[in-house]
Amino acid sequence: MFNFIKMVARDVKLIKKSDPAAKNTLEILLTYPTLRAIRCYRLAHWFYERKNFTTARIISQWARSKTGIEIHPGATIGKGLFIDHGMGVVIGETAIIGDNCLIYQGVTLGGTGKEKGKRHPTLGNNVLVGAGAKVLGPFTVGNNVKIAANAVVLNAIPDNCTAVGVPARVVKMNGKKIHKVTCDIDQIHIPDPVSQEICKLKSDIEKLRKEIARLKK
Q1: What is the pLDDT of residues 29-51, one digit of tens each?
Q2: Is the link from the previous residue into 167 a cis peptide, with omega within 30 of 0?
């Protein structure tokens, strides 16, 4: 019981730190879906590890109906996970999430088919996954990675990177900005590498047009 209270207190403290909308402890305990979803996951995971799969799934599906967050009881989740808003989040059976990760609404940590064994992604520590992002497959997303809103990640991402786009591309790596990223948790002001390439192509075409016009004179 002491460990449970300690875990809830830690989660409440994390929400206060992560969410500027959080006003007080009572509000968090009564209204935050992430708290209920993670508590139910911990209980369901306990049953899952003891091969009581039906009970585990009943608990997880009840939590899904109440919170809109679907966490398979077989997933492995570290300390300090915060699911902001949470509606539409899906975390698959073989997904692994490290410590102190932040996941926004509409995120899927899913598989790409009906393969057996490890089929969902592994997130390292301190990973941010933006709203609507899809991370699909049995690969690893490294520590301190930021995935932009609506990105579709289909391959592994190294540590200390920022990835955007469909499919996702790395725009920042090991502290060196490949393209300018203005804010650590800003999901809006992140460059689109596809758009940048199109702009470059337009510029090159305009140069070619001017050169052709010059040669025709």
Answers
A1: 888 899 899 999 999 999 999 99
A2: yes
pLDDT tens column, 97-112: 999 999 999 999 999 8
**Is 133:141 a contact under the CB 8 Å cutoff?**
no
Instruction: Supply the pTM of this predicted model.
Output: 0.76
**Phi, psi (degrees; rounded to nearest 5) at 111:** -105, 180
Query: Do the Cβ atoms of 70 and 85 come closer than 8 Å?
Result: no
Q: Quick one: how far is CA 213 from the chain centroid?
A: 50
Give the torsion through C-alpha atoms of 52, 87, 96, 114, to 10 deg: 70
Q: Which amino acid is at 131?
A: A
Query: By C-alpha distance, which of 138, 80, 134 is closest to 107?
Result: 134
Single-letter residue type at 132: G
CA–CA gap between residue 148 and residue 55 (Å, rounded):
35
